[in-house]
Amino acid sequence: MHTPTHAPAYLAAELRLPTNGLDYAILAIYFAVVLGIGFAARRSVKTSLDFFLSGRSLPAWITGLAFISANLAATEILGMAANSAQYGAYTVHWYWIGAIPAMVFLGLVMMPFYYGSKVRSVPEFLLLRFDKGAHLLSSILFAFAAILIAGVNLYALAIVVEALLGWPQWVAIVVAGFFVLAYITLGGLSSAIYNEVLQFFVILAALIPIVVLSLKKVGGWDGLTDKLTAAHGHDFTTAWGGTGIGHANPLGANWLTIVLGLGFVLSFGYWTTNFAEVQRALSAKNLSAAQRTPLIAAFPKIFIVFLVMIPGLAAAVLVPEIGTSASGLQYNDAIPYLMQELLPNGVLGIAVTGLLAAFMAGMAANVSSFNTVFTTDIWARYVVKDREDGYYVRFGRLITAIGVLASIGTAFLASSFSNIMSYLQTLFSFFNVPMFVVFIIGMFWKRASMRSGFWGLLAGTVAAMVNYFVLYKNGIVDIPSDQGANFVSAIAGFVAGAVVMVAVSLFTKPKPEQELQGLVYGTRSPGAAEPPAPGDEAWYRRPALLGWGAVVLAAVCYIPFSI
Amino acid sequence: MSESENSAHRPAGAEYDVQREVEELQSKSATAARIFDLRRIIGGLFVVYGVIITITGITDSQKAIDKAQGVNINLWTGIGMLILGAFFLVWLKLRPTTTAEEPESE
User: Which of residues 286-325 of A touch B (CB under 8 A)?
Assistant: First the structure.
């Protein structure tokens, strides 16, 4: 996750929702459908490609919505509302500059290499472009990070469910873990993706009523901005106010670190190399659909910010002491608080279902990418090679179960050592940064040598971590907030990775030119050119139009927040 | 796959023939033929939810409406969900899946 969200430390006990039988019935129907999708998808799994990549056969609207859903986990929803309650309209940066350009770049520039080279995972691309060193390092780091994030999702779910519904934490962890285990083991990636698309619509149905009612309560958009300006000053409702270099602002970042750190390094690292996201696009049925996957996702992404930011801002108006001990409410409580205050039974059940669905999807996206990397990149490549395909399907199911059990263990661990968990999460957030530098140089510079991938990856990771944990945490460099330090560390990791890659390339031998076909910009992979599918030449399916349309739309959205 | 004959052009020195392996698996893949249409599930679930929530809205007490700032939020959300559900079912009806579903062969 590139978002600044950490598992909420606790939710206030007075947030218990007045749920009744109707709400529980709505929740029960959802769980039944989730399992039903798993059982129904089971018959489509014949080869390992079906299990891990849906046989590369899904239409673009499904992979596109799954792409956005895999990112729209509940930690993101609660965390971005919290961000808005704390920092105000700065939240839009995580969407418009911190997501859209990277998503468009993935679709227009990188996808032809990813999809065209027919790799099954992000690490597998590194194997083809560089060597086993880069491949193994990135596979192992990804597998650890995926289990860790799945566990953090599960733990966050347990805290929220305990506060809202009164279930003990272990019950929530075991129940949610069981459902995710069941539907992924049965139907593989197809059932994870189908459930993600379903979750997308349920979460919209949950958030829209909250937004409408909270706006009504604070007197509409004008009432909201007037009250926030009166309480927090004008900058609180603008995107760029107070971000001049040398100015102090609550975010602790200036426009340069926002644009470079968040908008370029962190965002491109997350969106273009995080396999939990890219996997959705690789399961599309052809290159055009794969390119359109992140582009279709970009449009909802532009507007989802309003669904999470408005509740956060409204909570800041309704509970002026939010985030301080005077109110008993944390920033993370913004959405649960509004659910309790505003939603009658019925819609309340939908909102609870949406939140639980979002937690489970956040976990499932990580589990379904973990089992793919562990099976195809680690097990089949280095441990048990050249067995028949059915063996790897069985192994994939087994490792899914092991992965879910490991994340349940991680969740229990997190409940006793929450500080260590947030530390580890920060640590892994820096891992995407050098991945991105290695990709971008590897894709655009033929001379980047086989060994340079591994060393660039290592140097970038170490530099980002040293900057954050040694220089920033020990006060050697002065950055006002964790967020700001995050951005600066990302930039440091990017620069270090790039410098080391170039230096190593100059002293080691390049990859033979004919092995780079289809992997580096300006080359074509023999056999990768597919005839366009009928209907794909329609103007509204042209990737360039969709991509540039999203960029322009995001830029236009900035205008009302910049004056 | 359509272009599989081209993989013969791949350089002999290429260490990992991922492309050929994936093409082979893709030709045996069953997802395209056997996966059910997701539009039916989304449509069905949202029609069921829409009916439940709309009825809740029609029978809601004044207390529930007051809680929601005087808006009958259940009614409006229910209608919205019904429309979304109907949209997916109509789309499915107008543009059915092109690949015919094969009977289970194992």
Answer: none
Cα distance between residue A401 and residue B29, in whole Å: 23
Chain A contacts of B42, Cβ < 8 Å?
A: 197-198, 201
> pLDDT tens for residues A228-271?
888 888 888 888 877 777 777 777 778 888 888 788 888 898 89
SS3 A242: coil
Give the confidence band of B7 by pLDDT, cuts at 50, 70, 90.
very low
Which residues in chain B have their CB less than 8 angstroms from residue A212's CB?
A: 71, 73
Q: What is the pTM of this model?
A: 0.90
CB contact under 8 A, A515 and B74: no
Given B3, B35, B81, which is nearest A205 (Cβ)? Answer: B81
The CA distances from residue A519 to A119, A165, A255, A288, A442, in Å, are 10, 51, 34, 18, 8
Instruction: Give chain A positions within 8 Å (CB) of B38.
Output: 62, 194, 197-198
Q: Which of A33, A40, A213 sits opposite B68 (nearest CB)?
A: A213
Assembly ipTM: 0.88
Q: For chain A, which residues make up each domain, given as ranges?
A: 13-522+537-561
Question: What is the CATH number that goes with domain A13-522+537-561?
Answer: 1.20.1730.10
CA atoms within 13 A of residue A60's CA, in its CB half-sphere = 22
